[in-house]
């Protein structure tokens, strides 16, 4: 079997810990707006990490492997850009992260939250969808996700 170079480079970890130090000072994307009972703005300021999670909580970003890192960058415009959907498609970009936790009860030592790259269409593609040599396969396990098998058919 040929080596396609899809292995993870040894210097890359699969997660990056975001340090909790100076939690109140770490700004995140967005604005915190506090309204009164009539919908009028009382105060508005940049959103801070402490507004979202407690300082004892742990926030980690799970890194993903990018094809462009191994094979060079390709900038093929997605065919969704010109598709007629009735509205403009919402593309995900490098800063599209979602945060989840895998916790079922309160933990006194804090909760670990994981940030993952959000799934969805990208504006720039690595492979040309019109190239017959660019193939993709979706492999599922029926017992794990039977609904997905129905969708693919």
Automatic annotation (TrEMBL):
Q: Name one GO molecular function term.
A: 6-phosphofructokinase activity
Name used for this protein in its record: Phosphofructokinase domain-containing protein
Question: Which InterPro entries does its entry note?
Answer: PFKA, PKF_sf
Q: Which species does this protein come from?
A: Noctiluca scintillans
Q: Domain of life of the organism in this record?
A: Eukaryota
Q: Which residues form the signal peptide?
A: none
């Amino acid at each position: 079997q040929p080596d396609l170079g899809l292995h993870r480079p040894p210097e890359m970890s699969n997660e990056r810990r975001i340090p909790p130090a100076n939690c109140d000072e770490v700004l995140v994307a967005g604005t915190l707006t506090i309204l009164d009972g009539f919908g009028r703005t009382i105060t508005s300021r940049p959103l801070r990490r402490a507004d979202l999670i407690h300082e004892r909580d742990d926030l980690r970003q799970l890194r993903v492997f990018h094809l462009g890192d191994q094979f060079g960058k390709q900038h093929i415009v997605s065919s969704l850009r010109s598709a007629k959907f009735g509205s403009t498609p919402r593309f995900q970009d490098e800063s599209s992260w979602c945060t989840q936790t895998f916790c079922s009860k309160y933990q006194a030592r804090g909760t670990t939250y994981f940030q993952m790259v959000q799934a969805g269409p990208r504006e720039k593609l690595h492979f040309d969808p019109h190239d017959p040599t660019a193939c993709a396969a979706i492999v599922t396990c029926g017992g794990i996700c039977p609904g997905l098998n129905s969708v693919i058919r």
